[in-house]
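Q: Joint fold for the lines below.
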Amino acid sequence: NAGVTQTPKFQVLKTGQSMTLQCAQDMNHEYMSWYRQDPGMGLRLIHYSVGAGITDQGEVPNGYNVSRSTTEDFPLRLLSAAPSQTSVYFCASSPRQVNGYTFGSGTRLTVV
Amino acid sequence: QQPVQSPQAVILREGEDAVINCSSSKALYSVHWYRQKHGEAPVFLMILLKGGEQKGHEKISASFNEKKQQSSLYLTASQLSYSGTYFCGTESAGNQFYFGTGTSLTVIP
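A: Joint structure:
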């Protein structure tokens, strides 16, 4: 099994550009989440989904959109990139909350 | 909503013990613990469910006091491989899951 696959691994954007970070899992997990990790701030929840067609906001959702049309995929869209969105982004999935999360390898995003 | 971890950083010599604490202001259903090596993704260590249980994983164990909304991770006889950043993660009402700010653990020979 591939687990959780994130693409791209690295990305540089100019301010105002939009892009989509891809996340796919092949474990048939219901729960999927996006986190951003900044130095000294740990992992902060952006958006999450408890199943196909269901998404909700986390603690830092502004500037990001998500959709969950299938169980496998959970893309994160940056609508208009800002330097404050420079971060490492992790996608994670879990069969349910009583199981641990499996993380993707991360996307390092720089907005200039 | 983010749980608070303490200490922020700790340095140990091989063989020493450490305790990392995680505290939340919300009622918790479960607490997870993860370890992240530099430049890598976090890796799941263990989960503790409501009921005040204690779990172990090799020489790493944890406890969960649901009344105090606190969890502690115990690392005994630390090894060089234990170095990394440890995160607690907490689940509360509404299916939301939040990670703490992390504790950097460095084990030196």
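Q: Anything notable?
A: Chain B touches chain A at residues 1-2, 5, 29-30, 32, 34, 40-47, 49, 87, 89, 91, 95-102 (CB under 8 Å). The first strand of chain B starts at residue 4 and ends at 6.
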